[in-house]
Amino acid sequence: MFAWPTDPYWLFRLNQGVHVTLGIVLIPVLLAKLWSVIPRLFAWPPVRSLSQALERLSLLLLVGGVLFEFATGVLNVQLDYIFPGSFYVLHFYGAWLFIGAFVVHIAFRIPLVIRTLRSGGLRDELRTPAGRTQGAPADETGLVTPNPAPPTMSRRGALGMVGAGSLVLLAVTAGQSIGGSLRSTALLAPHGQEPGPGPNGFQINKTAAGVGIRARDIGPGWRLVVRGGGRERIFTREQVLALPQQSAALPIACVEGWSTDDQEWSGVRLADLAAVVGFADRAPGVFVESAQRSGAFRSAMLRDNQVRDARSLLALRVNGAVLSPDHGYPARVIVPANPGVHNTKWVTRLTFGEGA
């Protein structure tokens, strides 16, 4: 498994914010590209040779793959999981399918790309007004009609329209990742995820009720089981609070693209909990389990470098207050540069080394 770094602590926030924002911003570019090649998609006869058949297959996978990636990505940002299976698995393998089809398609089309780029200057094309814009002559690509209608827009105008659309989407998307006062500008971000003012008043993804957390799961009977190296310790919440407490200022960043500002977390270092079961000299990876009863990510695996980081905590409080149930009371994991889905809430068991 890839050992995701913990420095800088805002790394995943930046990485996923750019990923999601760029994906949204590129939607007008995608639509413009598909619009420009629509004639090619319906060329007849569909297959004239073996090489063309391979190219057509790569085109089918290319267009299907990119539409799948954008559609599932937008639905994920809006927390609408209407597709079967795990979004993360589907989106991951969909990306590899798209990349493979893209490489094959480029290999087939690179000679045409080179000829097209050599045939005329981009600057001259962009300087041509609509009144003097002429369609390209028909060629073997099948992308140009032999009887074009009079142009209604220059190439510069078309490019400007696509660019303006992307800038508008950037303006109404980026705030959810940047945070601060710009968060209110994120019109396309999912809303209703902030519980209100106060120490626990920052965005959440899933509520305790939404994943089946019951009162008895997090009530006075809650216990934390710490295992590893053939040892086991069981703690009440009061006993966990009696352990040395540390603090760290860290954000939560989710795969949907949103992130919180830095919050002040306090609790027990994961490395100190590893020492409780005999890993004082070396902190191994840990398998974290939750009281969550439904939905994905009821557990998470953290690597040894994440456990060793002094900012990696089993958090009990945030911003000076006890965690709310929706933020993971009685205890949750918080690790720098870690995806939010792996900062497990409602933790009940930590297994260091063995099975981790």
Short description:
With 356 residues, the chain is an alpha+beta fold. It has 2 domains: 11-185, no CATH class; 209-352, Oxidoreductase, molybdopterin-binding domain (Sulfite Oxidase, Chain A, domain 2, Alpha-Beta Complex), CATH 3.90.420.10.
Word description of this protein:
The protein has 356 residues and is α+β, with helices and mostly antiparallel strands. The chain has eleven helices and ten strands. It folds into two domains: 11-185, no CATH class; 209-352, Alpha-Beta Complex (Sulfite Oxidase, Chain A, domain 2). The strands form two sheets. It has a five-stranded mixed β-sheet. α1 runs antiparallel to α6 and α2 (27-41) crosses α6. It is elongated, with a radius of gyration of 26 Å. Residues 221-353 form the Oxidoreductase molybdopterin-binding domain. Keywords: Membrane, Transmembrane, Transmembrane helix. Pfam families: Oxidored_molyb (PF00174). GO terms for molecular function: oxidoreductase activity.
